[in-house]
Amino acid sequence: MKLHYCLSGHPTLPCNVLKFKSTTIMLDCGLDMTSTLNFLPLPLVQSPRLSKLPGWVLKDGSTFLDKELKECSGHVFVDSVPEFCLPETELLDLSTVDVILISNYHCMMALPYITEYTGFTGTVYATEPTVQIGRLLMEELVNSIERVPKAQSASMWKNKEVQRLLPVPLKDAVEVSMWRKCYTMPEVNAALSKIQLVGYSQKIELFGAVQVTPLSSGYALGSSNWIIQSHYEKVSYVSGSSLLTTHPQPMDQASLKNSDVLILTGLTQIPTANPDGMVGEFCSNLAMTVRNGGNVLVPCYPSGVIYDLLECLYQYIDSAGLSNVPFYFISPVANSSLEFSQIFAEWLCHNKQTKVYLPEPPFPHAELIQTNKLKHYPSIHGDFSNDFKQPCVVFTGHPSLRFGDVVHFMELWGKSSLNTVIFTEPDFSYLDALAPYQPLAMKCVYCPIDTRLNFIQVSKLLKEVQPLHVVCPEQYTQPPPTQSHRTDLMIDCQPPPMSYRRAEVLTLPYKRRYEKIEIMPELADSLVPLEIKPGISLATVSAVLHTKDNKHVLQLPPKPPQPPASKKRKRVNDDVTECKPLKPLLSGSIPVDQFVQTLEKHGFSDVKVEDTAKGHIVLLQEAETLIQIEEDSTHIICDNDEPLRVKLRDLVLKFLQKF
Amino acid sequence: MPEIKVTPLGAGQDVGRSCILVSIAGKNVMLDCGMHMGYNDDRRFPDFSYITQNGRLTDFLDCVIISHFHLDHCGALPYFSEMVGYDGPIYMTHPTKAICPILLEDYRKITVDKKGETNFFTSQMIKDCMKKVVAVHLHQTVQVDEELEIKAYYAGHVLGAAMFQIKVGCESVVYTGDYNMTPDRHLGAAWIDKCRPDLLITESTYATTIRDSKRCRERDFLKKVHETVERGGKVLIPVFALGRAQELCILLETFWERMNLKAPIYFSTGLTEKANHYYKLFITWTNQKIRKTFVQRNMFEFKHIKAFDRAFADNPGPMVVFATPGMLHAGQSLQIFRKWAGNEKNMVIMPGYCVQGTVGHKILSGQRKLEMEGRQILEVKMQVEYMSFSAHADAKGIMQLIRQAEPRNVLLVHGEAKKMEFLKQKIEQEFHVNCYMPANGETTTIFTNPSIPVDISLGLLKRETAIGLLPDVKKPKLMHGTLMMKDNSFRLVSPEQALKELGLAEHQLRFTCRVHIQDPRKEHETVLRVYNHLKGVLKDYSVQHLPDGSITVESILIQATAHSEDQGTKVLLVSWTYQDEELGSYLTSLLKKGLPQSTA
Q1: B273 touches chain A (CB under 8 A)
Q2: What residues does the Beta-Casp domain cover (chain A) (predicted)?
Q3: CB A638 within 8 A of CB A648
Q4: Would you call A649 an interface residue with chain B, using a CB distance cutoff of 8 Å?
Q5: What is the mean pLDDT of residues B374-380?
Q6: Which chain B residue has the Cα nearest residue A583?
Q7: Cβ–Cβ of B579/A585 closer than 8 Å?
Q8: Eight-state DSSP code of residue B82
Q9: How do the domains of chain B map onto residue ranges?
Q10: Whole-number pLDDT of residue A572
Q11: For residue B466, what pLDDT is reported?
């Protein structure tokens, strides 16, 4: 029986648990960060605007929440250290999780919460780029939050009775009890130390029972889908895959074939936007702003799409006359991210791999750095403040606009209509992200670039790999809430997908009937196959079953069966099951004439045969023995004369096949 | 009986021209395709006519595996694939794929351009050959075809070096290529899991050597370089562009940094800068420490080591120069050597093995007067030092690898016969496995005894594991089933299922025995006595007294009737089926002994 537990409600930041053949496997460890949008931004430089916000007052005039909640730009925000929404921790005992499989660096952000706080003692599997870049993302996150110490952590508003009274969206915020503060670097290091590195198509044995294999998913450096299989069942976990040709190795689709169950998560969050078109718009908006003397702010993660954007700009800037405009990449991990991107040749697409053979760096941002067109800084403080020239283009995080260096640039550039902020990351609603900065004079352009599978690609993929069952988050089984008429924006397959939602448990519909077992060579040699029907041979096997590490082996039974000691005699049947073969089933029928001949050959001289309705009765008069023979049965009725009985038994058995 | 056959075409009781043919479960794999440094005639390449004399190699080989980029492991590849003709897959790791063609081109240039040979592979052939290469990741399981799979393990030795596991069904071979069991300045140590191959084919270059600690050799090396530089001498270190060169550069670079030395270090141009670049781009293949710190400080970006210019050789004052090639047989290293050899203040350090006939070999064997071309005699006054930095496993390392992998048989290649003999004995003694050391062209056959995988119906497996009230995992469990063989599938099912699938009916064989008991009491009283008796004796069995007056022991039925003639005798009818044979037979013998008198 296979069970599937859903611990995260966010379809692109999944956290599922699969119980499969006595192993408990967590699939991804996504951290829902959209909760941070309810918090006030953390400014790096004292912001007069943000520090003087009025406390929020209830309609009845009570002010007990005015320390926790502030009114800003017509919305109410929590004035506290930002918090993230954790995966469910109560649905099952997470200390029983044996392994965690990570599909890409965005889907491991909750790892420290799981590995450090639930009694988890297992192993985490991920590819090397996933771990290295995942570490960078965590470092950046921890750094941007710890840089701006906040004395208070608000909790009163989370009280159910209080939350009811709050304005939207706080009133509707879900799972607030699962919101937690960010982890620390020691926790990150402890979590990452539990990871074991794996390569694509590496077969990893779990307890001898299950084999897991990562496959290239084409979405990011080192991103993987996972095959979880035994000899007879195959579950494919497809999470964050892309069929577009960007920098990563292309998606391995062929290996997903013949799946019994395919779990499908991490589809594009913007199914209506074409990534290529968005990149074009990004470039033209950027060029226009800079030409008009304005600055461009690109809130982004320190790895991923930024590599592709830099590559586009590398090809674009000269023709667009932007060669003198400085590009700044500001992040505590900017340098590391740029360096790491160049050393993972084996995880890149074919074109980039070939460059390494020359040997040249696979990404052209190396040249942008060399020619001083792209500069990177750990933060706005230090060297950057000396080098800073306007107009310029700044890439910095965090895309939620709630923490990181981006907050400073929003405050700095928001008031001028010359400047533009271009949103490329699809994880946060840009309007919600901008809410605490309103009113803004700066232009806002929304060019979400999400290279993950769209619904057209999904239906093609499913036709191609033909899984028996599809399992997916409930969001994918209906059109997006804002576009309810777009029935094309959902998964369409036969049989219809099984859907799940946060805190739900599914029983996956597949039942295996066979298991692998090995017959030792000595036992195999002793078997006597008999051809029963043309092409079908049978051999009865009586053997000792050994099971170790979930592997089953059949061996020859021990040679001399221990003669049971007299004291043990009463336990005769126990000994039988342990040491002596069970009696086989019999099949066939007994031809009476031949049987009688055989009896006579063995010294029975007074054999008489009587016909009955269903067969015959063979009488041995002297021995007062009667043998009833029918089509499917034989009954030997005799006195308690064991040698005689055994003799007759063996003669009967000669005519029958054993199974 | 299934067997694995191994035939070395090169590297059999020899170093050089590594090329080993393996046949496993009907698949033929060629391991490495190297050239021999010691020969310039036909013997420099393996004799591929051994594989087939008429017909294409592609038809006889399922795949070719190259362990690393050294020419004695890949130097014959373009000849093999383009001139003899092979179009099947060639597997190697990414760094090997990147660096191998450069070394091949270098080799071609020296052979064709400098030595003027004509019938040799061309640049285009190298390119065409490389198109047949499939790059593999470490630990990736590559499915060559439906049955044959290969997997690479990290081998240390040089950048991208790998050991390969070749597996068909449950039979497997591991080929180590060249490996190093101790991490060095730039690479990590070889590692393999307990994969228990039927055969481990291992190199044995240092079969009898147990090397002192690397630290001592490094200290020694630095001391010698330092002393020479201090007294104003020049140090020449002949190297090959990739491999040891980077290790020694890192060593000197950190030493210069630490000691704040000013004497210049040069690296002869050409391959070198490019080589360092490969190390930078494939940094994930280097050791832990370099990988961890590369963002802050890339170990292959050298501050103190500059590109060498021919004119620098005549500069006054101390300097250290790394120059190619490593055996002083040609090129820049030889030129510099000639310039500096006359001064006793100078020093040449040979960090690796030199083939007979090379200048390197001559000076290492003590020759101090060398005849150069034009009958010129070169007197060597400079100091000559040998320091082994080659990254091969020593005897201890080889034993360690065997311990890690737990092979059933070991086969030695890539070493000298005498030394192999010694190691072979040691391996056989310590691990009690067979150890082989075939010469070139000699075939070793190893018999494997694989177990047979079959499908067992889950119902049968669960039934068997559920027998017994307290399942004791340690107790072996007896199972009874029917193995059905149809086409090539093997299924083990319960006898009932086998009968059902074949459309056969069960034939029931039943026995009924009459047991006579002397008991004058009424029938139902006799039955009660029998019941109490059995209940007392057969404590572990379900003994029941049914309302119709019969007794059951498990599924065995006992009924009592009065004897037709003798009222003092009762007849017990004990009835059981063939499947209960043991118990039925036991019961009749038990009852025959009669009932105990005391039983009421």
Answers
A1: no
A2: 306-434
A3: yes
A4: yes
A5: 87
A6: B579
A7: yes
A8: I
A9: 3-210+391-447, 214-386, 455-502, 510-592
A10: 44
A11: 53
Q: Testing the interface with A: which of B271, B294, B464, B482 to mutate, by most A Cβ within 10 A? A: B482
CATH no. of B510-592: 3.30.310
User: Tokens at residue A296, please?
Assistant: 């461009």
* Residue of B243 and B346 predicted with greater confidence: B346
- Indicate which residue of B82, B171, B203, B247 is catalytic: B203
Q: Which residues pair with B5 in a beta bridge?
A: B23, B445
- Tokens at B16, concatenated: 């050089």
Check CB contact under 8 Å for A540 and B479. Answer: no
Q: Decide if pLDDT at B38 tops 70.
A: yes
Q: d(Cα B409, Cα B402) in Å, to the nearest integer?
A: 10
- What CATH code would you report for A275-446? 3.40.50.10890
Percentage of residues of chain B with pLDDT beyond 90: 52
What CATH fold (topology level) applies to the domain B3-210+391-447? Answer: Metallo-beta-lactamase; Chain A (3.60.15)
Question: What type of residue sits at position A638?
Answer: C
B510, closest residue in chain A (CA to CA): A635
Question: What contacts B415, CB < 8 A, 6 or more positions away?
Answer: B13, B14, B15, B203, B204, B205, B207, B423
Check if the beta carbon of residue B18 is closer than 8 Å to that of residue B52: no
Give yes or no for residue B598 having a pLDDT over 60.
no
Closest Cβ opposite residue A527 in set B282, B483, B537: B483
Domain positions in chain A are 3-48+81-268+452-507, 275-446, 586-658
Average pLDDT, chain A: 91
Name A529's Cβ contacts closer than 8 Å, sequence gap at least 6.
A537, A538, A539, B483, B485
For residue range A367-394, list pLDDT tens digits in order: 999 999 999 999 999 999 999 999 999 9
pLDDT digit string (tens) for B103-143?
899 888 878 876 778 889 999 999 999 999 999 999 999 99
pLDDT in tens, A203-236: 999 998 899 999 999 999 999 999 999 988 999 9
Closest to B546 (Cα-Cα) out of B524, B561, B563:
B524
Q: From residue A172, how far is each of A38, A158, A166, A175 by CA, in Å? A: 11, 11, 9, 10
In chain A, the percentage of residues whose pLDDT exceeds 90 is 69
Which residue from A535, A545, A585 is facing B499, i.e. has the nearest CB?
A585
CATH for A586-658 is 3.30.310
Query: For residue range A214-223, what is the model confidence (pLDDT) as tens digits?
Result: 999 999 999 9
pLDDT at position A369: 96
Q: What is the DSSP letter of A56?
A: P
For residue B578, the distance in angstroms to the closest alpha carbon of chain A comes to 7
Interface confidence: ipTM more than 0.90? no
B214-386: which CATH topology?
A: Rossmann fold (3.40.50)
According to CATH, the superfamily of the domain at A3-48+81-268+452-507 is: Ribonuclease Z/Hydroxyacylglutathione hydrolase-like (3.60.15.10)
pLDDT band at A80 (very low <50, low <70, confident <90, very high): very high
Residue B416 annotated as catalytic: no
Total beta-carbon pairs less than 8 A apart between chain A and chain B: 271
Q: Which of A585, A633, A634 sits opposite B496 (nearest CB)?
A: A585
- The answer to whether the B3-210+391-447 and B510-592 domains have the same CATH topology is no
Element (H, E) at B125: helix B123-131
B98 interaction partners in chain A (CB closer than 8 Å):
356-357, 359
Strand partners, A540: B482
Predicted confidence (pLDDT) at residue A564 exceeds the cutoff of 60: no
Place of tokens 């039988």: A576
More confident residue, A448 or B324: A448
Q: Choose, out of B276, B458, B504, B507, the residue to mutate when testing the contact with A (most A CBs < 10 Å).
A: B507
What the block records as the tokens of A608 is 């008489």
Considering only CA atoms, which of B168, B144, B164 is closest in space to residue B153? B164
Is A456 a residue whose pLDDT tops 70? yes
The tokens for B311 are 């004119």
